[in-house]
Known about the structure:
- It contains 10 helices and 15 strands.
- By secondary structure, the chain is an alpha+beta fold.
- It is rod-shaped.
- The model has no long low-confidence stretch (mean pLDDT 90).
- The strands form 5 sheets. The chain has a 5-stranded mixed β-sheet, covered by helices on one side.
- Helix 5 (100-117) links the parallel strand 3 (92-98) and strand 4.
- 43% of the residues lie in helices and 24% in strands.
- Keywords: DNA-binding, Transcription, Transcription regulation.
- Belongs to the LysR transcriptional regulatory family.
Amino acid sequence: xxxxxxxxxxxxxxxxxxxxxxxxxxxxxxxxxxxxxxxxxxxxxxxxxxxxxxxxxxxxxxxxxxxxxxxxxxxxxxxxxxxxxxxxxxxxxxxxxxxxxxxxxxxxxxxxxxxxxxxxxxxxxxxxxxxxxxxxxxxxxxxxxxxxxxxxxxxxxxxxxxxxxxxxxxxxxxxxxxxxxxxxxxxxxxxxxxxxxxxxxxxxxxxxxxxxxxxxxxxxxxxxxxxxxxxxxxxxxxxxxxxxxxxxxxxxxxxxxxxxxxxxxxxxxxxxxxxxxxxxxxxxxxxxxxxxxxx
Length: 295
């Protein structure tokens, strides 16, 4: 038996007043209990119980051990109960990591309603366009956008799909002309996203199949929101994720270029470090996020 099990066995023996009754309660043999208590006494160098054929009583050392062990066991039970009870409650400190553009355009607008619904929750939101070490950063969940997640100790759950399309401003297209075929893009000023897999190679799919463009972007930026603003300002043609392009497209600030052609659609993953499942605060956050992302 481990130390806590021995403490529990000793406590049960004292409270039941019998090795046999305690053994029955614990589902073990009286001989096993007797051997464990003997080993305990030897390790302590002191007798804990005085036993006769008719009775059993605590020694002074036994009384001290019983009182202290009972306090330890009660404390362990209390901690376990508090954790189990709290596992279903949305409270504590939720630490979320996401890219700057996704955090500002998708997560930020939904936070007020989420926090109002869970007033006992503390929140830290870290925005970083590079992949962070979740364990080192202490994050509960990281939102990552990838074609696929590599095998790792992390647990990735798909929560959505992102569409990537080509955009420019009406003013730029009026001045430079609108591409009619994918190959025409090479003759335009291209704005590239530094952290994208498709910085210099656009793999497009459309009505006539798939084609790949080798490009040399004249402007390269490391943030999708900066790229969006440059496109709106008429600085060229570039690709944007739908959560960045939706609003300026709806306002008419940006228009689709080659609207029947798109880049591959990566997945949006919620990544956690634990394989034991998500606790209540992470589950509540992701449920709220999925609802906001629903079409």
